[in-house]
């Protein structure tokens, strides 16, 4: 009778910690960053916070009239005014409050910053025509702009006739 040998098992095993997160990769790079700020467990406002929702609404409107973006407003409220989460105090997010008062930006914030980046790269390329890497990065940024614009048109946050054009982009972010 023939003796049968067992197949060899894979000797190189990768140990996985119990807190291994599988996250989606970034669009145009290898990164799979999982760092994020931890949200408070309790959804109710902290007991030490004495600010009312009316005061928070007024301060949000005041900062928006100064020209700050919703994320900048949130950072100021968190760091200077001690309001950890606007939604826990007011029941609404910052952008909803701005929309209710008619102060919301016409272009969503992430799209605005991508357009701003594309304008800066274009300005750089006017001075440095041979910078091939910047040309490539501009293509990547503009493809992200087109992808985001398509999403915002689908969700009706942008009008269906809105179109990104590199010639008129500097007027959008000026």
From TrEMBL:
Q: Tell me one GO biological process term.
A: translation
Q: Which SMART domains match?
A: Ribosomal_S13_N, Ribosomal_S15
Q: Which GO terms describe its cellular component?
A: ribonucleoprotein complex; ribosome
The record's PANTHER family line, in alphabetical order, gives:
RIBOSOMAL PROTEIN S15P/S13E (PTHR11885), SMALL RIBOSOMAL SUBUNIT PROTEIN US15Y-RELATED (PTHR11885:SF25)
- Domain Small ribosomal subunit protein uS15 N-terminal span(s) in chain numbering: 24-83
Q: Which UniProt keywords apply?
A: Ribonucleoprotein, Ribosomal protein
HAMAP family the UniProt entry points to: Ribosomal_uS15_A (MF_01343_A)
Q: State whether keyword Ribonucleoprotein applies.
A: yes
Q: What is this protein called?
A: (rape) hypothetical protein
Say which species the protein is native to: Brassica napus
**Is-annotated flag, keyword GTP-binding?**
no
One GO MF term attached to the UniProt entry: structural constituent of ribosome
The family line of this record is: Belongs to the universal ribosomal protein uS15 family.
Which InterPro entries does the record associate with it? Answer: Ribosomal_uS15, Ribosomal_uS15_arc_euk, Ribosomal_uS15_N, uS15_NS1_RNA-bd_sf
């Amino acid at each position: 009778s023939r003796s049968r040998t067992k197949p060899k098992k894979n000797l190189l095993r990768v140990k996985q910690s119990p807190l291994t997160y599988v996250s989606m990769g970034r669009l145009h790079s290898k990164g799979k960053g999982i760092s994020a700020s931890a949200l408070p467990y309790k959804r109710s406002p902290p007991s030490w916070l004495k600010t009312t929702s009316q005061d928070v609404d007024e301060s949000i409107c005041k900062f928006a009239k100064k020209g700050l973006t919703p994320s900048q407003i949130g950072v100021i409220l968190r760091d200077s005014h001690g309001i950890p989460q606007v939604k826990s105090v007011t029941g609404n997010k910052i952008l909803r409050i701005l929309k209710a008062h008619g102060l919301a930006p016409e272009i969503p914030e992430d799209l605005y910053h991508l357009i701003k980046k594309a304008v800066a790269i274009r300005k750089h390329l006017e001075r440095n025509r041979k910078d091939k890497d910047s040309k490539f990065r501009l293509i990547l940024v503009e493809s992200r702009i087109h992808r985001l614009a398509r999403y915002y048109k689908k969700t009706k946050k942008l009008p269906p006739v809105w179109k990104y054009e590199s010639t008129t982009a500097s007027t959008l972010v000026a």
